Amino acid sequence: MKIVPYTQSAQTNAELVDLIMYCQNTEAQLNIKLAEQADIFDIETYYQANGGNFWLAIDQQQVVGSIGLLNLNNNVGVLKKFFTYPNYRGQPQRLGRQLFETLETYVTQETGLTQLILDTPAAETRSHYFYQKHGFEQIPRAALPVTYPFPDRDSLIFLKNY
Questions:
Q1: DSSP assigned state of 28
Q2: pLDDT in tens, 93-144
């Protein structure tokens, strides 16, 4: 398995959409439409052109995980599109940890970001534990230092200071 920065191809895009739709709608039953997530159809512009990045986990030439960093150019970044297929979570792969470490290394070595924020569905308690274990604290939505679009309206907000 390898984690690589996103490069566009029809195959990669189709597999990324499959991963996201599976995690959001089949697994978590959030019923989020693709139309609410235009960012996944223009990753270069939305993530990579502004000092952020987007990474894919590839296993046997198939996308099995993703994580994105949206750089808002005011010392705040947003962790987005953090997904893995279930059989890559936990032991022995720990793909979520590997993806997050890739993003965090980029944040600390390649950007001037001082805060990282994210939204995650309120019902996804396993992800809440992951974020808290990695230094994030839950904050009220009103305490967000910036505004940005997110499709799940029942999200909890987390913040990590660097």
A1: S
A2: 999 999 999 999 999 999 999 999 999 999 889 899 999 999 999 999 999 9
Of 12, 23, 25, 18, residue with least CA distance to 55: 12
Q: Are 78 and 118 in contact (CB under 8 A)?
A: yes
Closest CA to 3 of 126, 110, 100, 127: 100
What is the C-alpha separation between 137 and 119, in angstroms, rounded?
A: 12
Q: What is the DSSP string of 117-152?
A: EEEEETT-HHHHHHHHHTT-EEE-GGG-SS----S-
pTM: 0.95
CATH superfamily, domain at 2-161: Gcn5-related N-acetyltransferase (GNAT) (3.40.630.30)
DSSP H or E segment with residue 110: helix 95-110
By C-alpha distance, which of 69, 66, 34 is closest to 49?
A: 69
